[in-house]
Amino acid sequence: MRIAYVQMNCEFGKVKNNTGKAVNLLHTHDADLFVLPELFTSGYIFTNFTELLNLSEEIPDGPTCKLLTELCSEKNCLIVAGIPETYEGNYYNSAVLVGSQGVLLQYRKTHLFCDEKKWFKPGDTGFNVKEINGVRFGIMICFDWIFPESARTLALKGADIICHPANLVLPYCQKAMITRSLENGIFSITANRIGTEKRGSMELTFTGASQILDIKGNVLHQAGVIEEGVGIVEVNPLQARNKDVTTHNNLMGDRRTEWYNLGT
User: Fold this and answer.
1) Of residues 21, 65, 77, 109, which has the active-site annotation?
2) Quick check: is 75 catalytic?
3) What does pTM read for this prediction?
C-alpha cells in the first residue's frame, strides 16, 4: 500500500485556493492513501464566530467532502483531511476519511489546543477504527499526540495506520510520534502545515516536517520545514498486526492493566 502525507501552506479564509492547491498536489502523485493537514480548508487562527460560521461545513454533505469524494473516485484512493465542522449550532475541529463512496469515518478532535477552546467544542466521537479492504485506519488530530491514550486507544481497537492531520507549532510532536508508533507497533502519518499565519494579536509559525513512521518508529519519509509537497512510501500495513517485541514479549499481551487504574 502506498501511503502519503500532503504538506502545504493554507491561507486563512481562502477555501477555494486551499482546496485547489490540495487537489493540484494530489493530481501529480499516485498513492492509495493521502493525509492532508488539520483545518486545511479554512486556515487556523479564528478571531470571531462569524468567521467560524462562514468557513465551517456539514459532514458528510458539505462541499469539501463532496469534492474529496469525487477526487477519491477519480484517483481510486482514500483521503484523510481536517476541516471545521458545523453541527446543530456547534463547531468541531474535525477530520474525515473519504473514499469513492463518500465519508467512511468521521472524527472530532478530542484534545483542543490553546485558543481552539474559544471556538470549538471538545470532540464527542471518541477514537474509532475503520477497516477498508482489509486495512484498519484510525484518526487523531494534532494536539492529540501529547496524550498517549489517543494512539493507544486506536491501537487497542486494531488500527494498522494512524492518520494524523496537524497544524503543529510546538517543536516536540515529530519526535513524540516516534514513540507513539513504537509503543503501539503501528504506522503513523503526520501531515503538517508550513508557513506563518498572523491574525489579530496572534502569530503562529507552523513547523512542517511532515512524516511517515513504521511500526518500530523508523522515519520512512520526512519533509522539510518550509516546502510544500507530497511524501509517499510503500508499506505492508499488516505488519502492524504483529505486536511481538521478542519471542517472550508482546506489546499488547504483556500489558498488566490491573496496575494501570489511576482513576479519572
Assistant:
1) 109
2) no
3) 0.97
| pLDDT tens-digit readout, 222-246 | 999 999 999 999 999 999 999 999 9
Residue from 10, 21, 38, 85 carrying the catalytic annotation: 38
> Active site includes 58?
no
Contact 188, 161 (CB under 8 A): yes
Q: Which of 77, 142, 163, 173 is catalytic?
A: 142
The three grid cell numbers given for residue 74, joined into one nine-digit string: 477519480
CB 247 within 8 A of CB 21: no
- Give residue limits of the domains in the chain: 2-259
- Concerning whether 38 is annotated as a catalytic residue, the answer is yes
How many CB atoms sit inside 10 A of residue 254's CB?
A: 10
Give residue-wise pLDDT tens across range 128-138.
999 999 999 99
Multiple choice CATH, 2-259, 3.30.40.230, 3.60.110.10, 1.10.1200.10, 3.40.50.360? 3.60.110.10
